[in-house]
Amino acid sequence: MSQPADDQAMHDPDKYAAVADNFVYVHRALRRDLARIIAGGEPLFASDFARFARILEKHSELEDVLFFPPLEQRAPGSTGASVDQHREIEGLVAALSSGSSTDTQSDLATLQQLLLSHLDEEEQHIMPAMMEHFEAAEIWALDGRIMEFCSPEFMQEMMPWWFTHIDAADRVCVAQNMTVGVPPDFLPILSQWIASGLDETQWNELVGQVPALAATA
Ligand SMILES: [Fe+2]
Ligand SMILES: [Fe+2]
What we know:
The chain is an all-alpha fold. It has helices at residues 3-11, 13-39, 41-74, 80-98, 104-133, 136-143, 152-164, 168-181, 187-197, 200-209, 211-214. It folds into two domains: 1-150, nmb1532 protein domain like (Four Helix Bundle (Hemerythrin (Met), subunit A)); 151-217, no CATH class.
């Protein structure tokens, strides 16, 4: 993770918590899943790349339509590079997804290179800018609109994927953020989706630290 974000976090943990789900924990899962798919060769590419592509596409869309426009209003010029990188990454993902790539492993390596530098760029520049130009409550309000852009089918796929591809400490952070940021009547279904991605030991470990999840699942 980038140093500037850590520095900011020490100054304002509320703001850090508000941006961390989208700009830290989803990024970690994206990095880990793509590395796993590359390591797994053709079979894993065939079985798992489509899901990775759907989740990455939605993540970029949320940034493009939900987070970046208000940031661009308050900090003109801050999001242009990231938006350009989204288009470049989408082009490569489309080639890989459509089967028009002639060298899958080489294109995957290029995608990984582009994605890693893109995620770093957002963590080093976009995330600190969000914390500088918005109050924590404003970021939470944006975060609260994510569901407007996601179908239940997408969430059902994304939630277990997310919790599978982050470590136990990160799961606790994300789950805690959810119990605060998600409407109470939505928490039970969210808990079910999280549980479906974890084995019993992992789930018990998580609810031991975030009891609000257990009450609903
Ligand atoms: Fe991102
Ligand atoms: Fe992005």
